[in-house]
Amino acid sequence: MMRSHRARRCAVVGLAATTLVLIGSSVLGTVSTRRSAETVARSAALAEAYDRAHDAVTAEESLERKYRLEPSDAVRGQSRAAGDDLDAALRDVKAAGGPADRRLADRVGVLHSEYRAGVTQMFAAADAHDDATVERLDAQRTDPAFTQLSALVKAATDEHARAAA
Which of 71, 75, 120, 145 is the most buried (most CB within 10 A)? Predict the structure, then answer.
């Protein structure tokens, strides 16, 4: 009789241990799935923010070229608005991203400041009909800064889009 009681007790303990293992495994699976979903959602949000940043950089560069052909306050305002759109997208990157994204957003911000300084000088030269200065500024300041900005933001967009897929 003692053996049958022990056998039942061992069976109950074994069943309880198996149940705990199964529950623990289920909980870990749920946590892992939730973390994966959060990572994908964060990557999608970052890809979208970087994509908006890239659109803003591209728009700003197009407006810079338009100003050279049609200098006007309206084009200047549109250019400033595109720059503001870039700044907003970079704030979203900093809010949603990790340390690497924040560092990249800071780097893009510095490059954008350099670009805007060149654009401001270029607009003044265009207003003065100084085509030689406009061309020099484009070749030495705005075009190289735009190329770097565009490449950095596009690479980040692509990286986060792949992670979100």
Answer: 145
